Amino acid sequence: MLLDLKGKKILVTGIANNRSIAWGIAQQLHAAGAELGITYLPDAKGRFESKVKELTSPLNPSLFLPLDVQDSRQIEEVFNSVEKEWGQLDGLVHCLAFAGKEELVGDYSATTPEGFARALEISAYSLAPLCKHGKNLFSQGAGVVTLTYLGAERAIPNYNVMGVAKAALEASVRYLSAELGPEKEVRVNAISAGPIRTLASSAIGGILEMIHNVEEKAPLRRTVTQTEVGNTAAFLLSDLSSGISGQTIYVDSGYCINGM
Ligand code: NAD
Ligand code: IMJ
Questions:
Q1: Which of 10, 101, 115, 128 could pair covalently with 91 via S-S, beta carbons 3.0-4.6 A apart?
Q2: Using an 8 Å Cβ cutoff, are 149 and 95 in contact?
Q3: Quick check: 151 and 170 in contact, CB under 8 A?
Q4: How many CB atoms lie within 10 A of CB 257?
Q5: Active site (catalytic) residues
Q6: Which ligand is the nearest neighbour of the Cα of 252?
Q7: Which ligand is nearest to the CA of 43?
């Protein structure tokens, strides 16, 4: 097999349910032979934990850990476990974002400083501490992949502060790529996915309109699937992409090439 992740230990964040993009990624990484570690966002009632555990158990993850990226102790504990159980890290998937609902409707100028800080902290900043803690554990040629959206570079209705966060995330990918490349050829890249119906998109006004727009105008005349994003993540975490770092790769049916 050309695309081979056998022997690679990869940590996947951002699985909430069976529609999550991170779930599509985890399945394709598993299919390519990777050994997986899964993190979930802990909540008071433990509902996410049991749901994500049940969903991911067919992939036999060798690590299953709570991670709220706003909690620096949890970040430390995740990497302590990676060090103890794996001793190395060959891949990291950052597939999470959050902004307050009220920030994702109406005027961008109405964004509050608290709303701005929270969206940027969770959706963009979090990649930096994950890479910092991963630094000593990354193997030669390890990969980091994050998820972004076209709203980073175009004004897309209601995306608002998330667009600003994704712009910061894409810039972070370039800075982290410059930082992590020299020593061990660790590569950092982003996948810019087209609109997909997930928990994080279905709650949004105008998502169906955006999807219809893609179906009418994208070169492929259809939306993309979680599996297609997963296949690109597998490529970016494999040795097949050994020359690629600091990039944003579009998995969007070609939508972003259109002039209008
Ligand atoms: P999702 O709701 O399934 O995933 C979002 C994840 O973020 C959830 O698992 C949630 O638990 C996690 N999360 C939120 N706050 C967190 C925190 N403080 N700490 C740790 N985890 C936290 O939705 P999705 O669409 O699969 O989103 C995954 C990524 O894909 C996001 O970065 C999103 O911006 C990006 N993306 C989505 C689309 C789309 O149309 N769905 C398009 C392009 C990019
Ligand atoms: C999100 C908002 C506005 C327009 C949007 C989206 N379009 C798409 C999304 C057109 C495709 C989904 N997307 C790319 C995201 O990154 C979503 C992030 C997000 C979603 C929610 C919904 C529920 C909530 N907070 C959120 N924070 C971030 O409370």
A1: 10
A2: no
A3: no
A4: 10
A5: 149, 159
A6: 1
A7: 1
Q: How far is the CA of 34 from the centre of ligand 1 (A)?
A: 22
Structural domains in the chain, CATH included, are 9-252 (3.40.50.720)
Please report, in angstroms and rounded to a whole number, the separation of the first and last CA atoms in the chain.
Answer: 40
pTM: 0.98
Amino acid (1-letter code) at residue 205 = G
Ligand 1 pocket check: which of 12, 21, 172 to mutate, most ligand atoms within 8 Å of Cβ?
A: 21
